[in-house]
User: Fold this.
Amino acid sequence: MYEYFSGKLIFKSPTHVIIDVSGIGYFVHISLTTYAQLKDQEHLKLFISFQVREDSQTLYGFATEGERQLFNHLISVSGIGPNTGRMMLSSATPEEIQQAIVTGHVQTIQKIKGIGPKTAQRVILELQDKLKKEGPHALISLPVQKQSSSEEALAALVMLGFQKIATEKVLLTIQNTEGELPVEALIKLALKKL
Assistant:
């Protein structure tokens, strides 16, 4: 239904943005990969995946067409909903996920929170041929933004469904061992430990 939204960035967090398009404010869920690309832009363009369920109509936005395309492939797999697809794209780059699927590397997919061995195998089985046909250049490289804040990481992880107390402990441990990290790196490390 929607191809993309182009408008003024009103609010940005690691899990969602509010974008003003011709006077209408849209709440759009984003992945950590997209968050890293937004930087501090006043005007932005997000490629949209509009998901309709019985009880909700939700917008998911992506900085690149390639990331949106991979998201749509992922959620076409039985057992992977939009939130799990967004979690996958927040835990690893689209290129890493695509490479793991094309090469059949189950362990890489299985490392993502909420993905068990059977689901990882199903993802590879159902998507391997599709992604091979699209070729290795279907996704473009994504730059990583250097920005850090444990509060933003905590808010993002809580919105993804993790318990606040456990998440705070993990983030504190990561900061004590790793030092100051960008928000994306903090969240990725925390996802591996939660």
